[in-house]
Amino acid sequence: MILPAIRPRDAGSWDVVSLGEVMLRLDPGEERIHTTRSFRAWEGGGEYNVARALRRCFGLRTTIVTALVDNPVGRLVEDLILQGGVNLSHVRWAADDGVGRTARNGLNFTERGFGLRGAVGVSDRGHTAVSQLRPGDIDWDALFGDEGARWFHTGGIFAALSDTTADVAAEAMAAAHRHGTIVSYDLNYRSSLWKGFGGPARAREVNRALAPLVDVMLGNEEDFTTALGFEVAGLDPNLSAVDPASFGRMLSAVTAEYPNLALVATTLRVARTASRNDWGALCFVDGGLHRAAFREGLEILDRVGGGDSFASGLIYGLLAGFSPQRALEYGAAHGALAMTTPGDTSSATLAEVEAVVAGASARVVR
Fold it and tell me: Which H helix or E strand runs over 107?
């Protein structure tokens, strides 16, 4: 299947609508979570990170469908989202009961890792406001029909939040298709989210049920294997090397089982250390495999959000009408740049992305 026609920019209010949780990220910087005495606050969340980058780096009109508790923590997250430029008109505000018995805002403690010490994420996000969304809570036909959107993005993190969120995602995808909106889905498998919720088997069940509603499927090797059930033949279990041909065959198998998928893409990462990775990407579209430049020994400051930044760069390229190869290069370049700065979200500029795509060096600019 080829990518369906993308609605023109003047056909609606939004270039991209995202559905997902926005958490408060607490970052100990160079310290450890269990030893630090101070944290830096950011906002972050897989689906949100894509919308923010598409707004701040790529200049598109984006909005986030989410829910927050109306208390000072929720308003801090709101203020951070406002700095990111993402529209807040589709945020649902839940009443604060004082201590979070009925609903709360999610927290994500994240240490970056260095050298042999890998990055660590500790989520504190049980019974959050957004996890309690149910089918019927959002008027998707008003959003995709009356307001209009060119692209809808959500993913496996949102789908894993509760026993209702996957149904909300399915409802949103169906409405998006009714109104000619492209649907992308990042598998984004997180073992911590599925640990008490059926584990990998449940993750596979949920994601395989949602896959027929997707146009553009994204993920990494763990996502496609654990969350969707497709093995990469001959993959080194320590992932000390990657074979693009094996990944390409896996992507081809995904599209064979789900012919509705117009494009399937994966990032390629070899973590030599937490602070030095090899990085690249592949996509399979219209029967052909495309490979972005593979960057060996990429120096990493903060790896969290690299996949989301890849997704946003790829989506930007497709919305801009680029060829799949060029869109893939934008995704890989933006993902690489995002990992050179702290926080979940990208602080790269479009000019920087284009320079990296063109092969620019890291010489000082002054």
Answer: strand 107-111
Residue 93 has pLDDT above 90, yes or no: yes
Indicate the class that CATH gives domain 9-356.
Answer: alpha beta
Question: Model pTM?
Answer: 0.95
Dihedral sign from CA coordinates of 61, 16, 353, 364: positive
Question: What are 204-217's pLDDT values in tens digits?
Answer: 999 999 999 999 99
CB-based contact 15:61 (threshold 8 Å): yes
3-state secondary structure 51-96: HHHHHHCCCCCEEEEEEEECCHHHHHHHHHHHHHCCECCCEEEECC
Domain range summary for the chain, segments of one domain joined by +? 9-356
Among 10-14, 71-75, 93-97, 140-144, the minimum mean pLDDT is found in: 10-14
> Taking every pair of C-alpha atoms in the chain, what is the biggest distance, in angstroms?
55
d(CA 105, CA 108): 10
Q: What is the pLDDT of residue 366?
A: 41
Please give the Cα distance from 17 to 60 (Å, whole number): 11
| Cβ atoms of 16 and 56 closer than 8 Å | no
Rg (CA), the chain: 19
Residue 46, pLDDT > 90, answer yes
Contact between residue 50 and residue 315 where contact means Cβ atoms under 8 Å apart: yes
DSSP result, 32-46: -TTT-S--EEEEE-H
Spell out the SS3 assignment of 235-282: CCCCCCCCCHHHHHHHHHHHHHHCCCCCEEEEEEEEEEECCEEEEEEE
Gap between the Cα atoms of 132 and 142, Å rounded? 21
CB 43 within 8 A of CB 80: yes
> To 5 degrees, how large is the angle CA 190–CA 191–CA 192?
90
350-366 residues labelled b (16+ CB within 10 A) or e (exposed)? eebbeebbeeeeeeeee
- The H or E element spanning position 319 is helix 306-319
